[in-house]
Prior knowledge:
The chain is an alpha+beta fold. It folds into two domains: 3-111, 2-Layer Sandwich (Beta-Lactamase), CATH 3.30.450.20; 114-182, Orthogonal Bundle (Arc Repressor Mutant, subunit A), CATH 1.10.10.10. 42% of the residues lie in helices and 19% in strands. Strands 2-1-5-4-3 form a five-stranded antiparallel sheet, covered by helices on one side. A hairpin with a 4-residue loop joins strand 1 (21-25) and strand 2. The protein starts with a helix and ends with a helix.
Amino acid sequence: MTHESRRSVLQETLQPLDVPSFIGETSGRLVWLNDAAKAAFGDRTGDFYSDVVAPEDVARVLAEIERMRSGAQRGAYEIDAILRDGRRQRVEINSVAIEGDAIFYGVFGVVLRPGSRLGAAAESPLTNRQHQVLELLASGHSTAQIADSLHLSRETIRNYVRDLLRALGAHSRIEAVAEGRRRGLI
């Protein structure tokens, strides 16, 4: 199988995933992003990984790229990424060498959910669904967008919002997001 056909198969495999997925060169340049990655980060094809990484995490990313260059088959680490709108989001990066070719490697970014950290869920006054709604509110989603994303009715989303406002002692969506950030829920 040629280099281009291997890359094409990988792109076809990663494209339908809801997880932001990337193919990058060991030089650190992004050469392909699936639609989920473009939605989160914008079309960053041709940019370097360091362009979408918080400045304090760039050295970590460069060290991981160097590890891949030196023959590591995979890696996993967390960084703060810069989203398309300029906000930061903590993400887990998993890099995997594409077998048979040392020039490219696949990198998969998985956004960590607030309740996924040990202890965070136990200390939270929110249900898992309320966490999801709060996270989407923090990302700027409207009621309709949240309903579409979670495959629920708008009225159900309004109920979740009311309940999470009550649980956080907030009087508005903005106050709920601020309180969620203050408590480390998002």
